[in-house]
What we know:
- By secondary structure, the protein is α/β, with parallel strands linked by helices.
- Helices cover 46% and strands 16% of the residues.
- It contains 19 helices and 14 strands.
- The strands form 2 sheets. It has a 7-stranded parallel β-sheet with strand order 3-2-1-4-5-6-7, sandwiched between helices.
- Helix 5 (87-93) links the parallel strand 2 (79-84) and strand 3.
Amino acid sequence: MLLLYNIAIQLYGLIIKIFSLFNNKAKLFVQGRKNIFKKIQKKIDPAKSSIWFHFASLGEFEQGRPLLEKIKSTYPEKQIIITFFSPSGYEIRKDYALADGLFYLPLDTPSNAKQLIAAINPEIAIFTKYEYWYHYFKVLHQSGIPLYIISGIFRPDQIFFKWYGSFNRKILSFVNHFFVQNEESKQLLSQININNVSISGDTRFDRVAENAKSPKEFETIRKFCDNKNTLIAGSTWPADERLLAALINAHPNWKFIIAPHEIDRAHIDEIVKLIPEAVKYSALPDQFINAQTLIIDNIGLLSSIYQYGQVAYIGGGFGVGIHNTLEAAAFGIPVIFGPKYDKFQEAKDLVSIKAAISINNAEELFSAFQKLTAYKTSGDLAKSYVSTKTGSTDQIIKYIAQNF
């Protein structure tokens, strides 16, 4: 099985190189890893104590960020080394001020794992939610470097719990401790004889609660909303935007802000075709303040824009799964999203307390919109839910501090 894993990693690298000839994300993936060890050697002093945080992408970074910042404030003398697998995380956070070194993660090969860990010499390693790499985990284990998974979540359909998943279970065996989000995850790990587990919840709650207390202010967006009821649509995809276009036409007295997941020119142009009167944030002069729909064509604004809304629509539910619902909920905004949310405990919780509604089509979107605008306590329920789930960061740092 290890042989097949190694072949798959090499094939993945080859396919990405081919795609990089015509795909910008793949190009960033490849170029960011060129001469990676020379970049690390120039930036990092391996003789100095460091803590390694790895994130798959931007969402996992925001999830692990409360713990990273807590560790940095508590132990300012320690180097913080960050790696990303995806360009969508690296490119947005490559200038993150608290990182002493921030790099792409080289592909998981035996030589890369040995080289990287020798180069950064971490005191501990912290991986957030997902990302299980055999060689990196094995080298950390063999080197006696504690490895922690934070905000982990497991489901019965994952390969770890299948009869043919012995290789994947081996990867989990290299982890020193799992901090998981719920009881189900703990029970599933117990079934495969992994008991070094704590239920600590999700560090995202700490992050979104902190953000809601002191969000960035955007005067232009505040003027656009003009004290009118506003729906904020976050991380949308084309399937979401087609539904929203109909909703916008039906509610001329509402303002709408759409922050798409992808902001490439082609996607923005498609949204403008759907909603011809929409204006783009990057070109928003004062005379467009009276427009009904605003398209956010910049990165990094969404988490604070929710402060201006009364209802949120979260995209991705008609694809592989919904995006972050908690950023909106933390501001006391009820949420609407598509049908694919079963992998997200917080979404299921929000639905169960009537702070969120899942929809399958335009008719259900119209109905959900009417219900949430009429049921005024939905937002309060959402905010209360977030506040009761905070505290994961303190629980985790108390445990791992034993290794400092």
